[in-house]
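Fold tokens
===========
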Amino acid sequence: MIPLAVQLYSLREQAQNDLVGVLKAVAAMGYRGVELAGLYNRKPAELRRLIEDCGLVICATHGPWPTRDTVHAAADTVRALGTDTLVTGFGPDRFQSADKIRATAEELHAVAEPLMAAGLTVALHNHHWEFERVEGRLAYDLFVELCPQVKLEVDVYWAANFGACNPAEVVARHRARTILLHLKDGPLVRNAPMTAVGAGRVDIPAVVRAADPAVLRWLIVELDTCATDMTAAVAASYRYLVRAGLGAGTRPA
């Protein structure tokens, strides 16, 4: 069964004041790993030791897309963290036309190649703006087609585009390259707060079943906002996924 992790961005406010406390709480919930969204003013090796001392692993790190000048430093950072996966995404301006999508794909190629040559996996994280239509196609599908060497971290809530798309169909269409799933849930209403996974309108079981279990590496809970206590929502998400038999942690729900 696919292991469960949490994107620490979900708990960013708590982590600013007590990172160790957050990590211990995440481990106590039963999560096996974390995905980073920053280094919390620590050196990569130091942060890795801190996370591993809490019984967790770093499944991936998410950050700004490196430039040609910073690509080697980015590779060193990822390796020092003890992971092999760098995840990033692009802003809405990059997907407003087919020409802009092609230009972004070329930029991604130029930086992805040296990262992959260094033995790293590069994965694209989506938002909702990639799921608007450009020249009759979803911008996401065009971009993915133009970047065949890049793996995918499908954010299933944003892939729904507030009900305009079916995220399970998106995952099924790109299952050969989907190595990570960002599981988040909510009412599918623009600017409305999210809910614990399993408490909203996203068909989470269908999304997970659409992935290829031989390709998918991690299920990662990420809640950008929540109307309830975020720590409680992250814990509830774990319980739902384990009880539903969708993911594996270190303890029963």
